[in-house]
Amino acid sequence: MNDAYILKNVTSKYGDKVVLNIPELKIEDGKITAIVGPNGSGKTTLLNLLTFLEMPSSGEIIFKGEKVEEKNIVSLRRRIGFLPQNPYLFHNTVFSNVEAGLKIRKIPSSERKMLVKNALKKVGLLGYEKRPAYKISGGEGQRVALARTICTNPEVLILDEPSTYMDKKNIIRTEEIIYEFSREKGKTVVFTSQDLHRAQSIADKVLTLFRGELTTASLANLFHGKITNDGKIFDTGRIKIEITSANGDETHISIDPSNIVISSESLISSMRNSFKGKITAIIEENGKVRIEVEAGEKFHAYITKKS
Question: What is the pLDDT of residue 29?
Fold first, then answer.
């Protein structure tokens, strides 16, 4: 097994505040890795490190066996294709936007034309070549930027919330591009998402970031709130969850979906919490069945097909 990235004792600071703290992380080459977490968890900061737009405040990053340093950071950037959450489009045609990276690499005109058309076809925008980029919709702009990113055939494809502004049809199209880029070309893909379930559906590995650190906590039932003065209740504002212990300053609580029991009748058990709710969705994924329940907060529970 080869690693595209190895991070050792990496931190990032903005001023005196540590926004990212990763003792160790390996991202396997040729695989799809998803990074999930709520807003402010450090996802974009981590991507800035992986795309070499920023250097860490401390620690070491190894990219395909090469230590990342100031002296080689520019050459390493050229090996990465990066789609930011809010990509910038030039005040020009769609074609000119997509071919920009190819022109920088001095690809011949005839080859550029073919590569641009192939990329636009993949994102469903073939025929948009002459349209002004500033007149297309946000979702179309996202797809133009995606076409520009894949057009150069980078070693690693990195995407920050790639489904932003896209409808369901084009979210699926984007996921197909990610899958093809990794499976057919053997390339590494890293993307961020706030949607744990979509991430799990296409990624080989899902990393969870919370408050700038990697965690094993589930994001399927991650609730915001506060602990009551007696330290025994976590109050989300919609429901009150009995807890065993806490520091007192915690603002989030995570509940493992596999630890939730669903019953049509009241249960007599040692479980601390019981809520009445309504099943709103039943979804089969990864050999299990995910149940969505509205019970003041939206809960996700996993059960077996047999259940």
Answer: 97
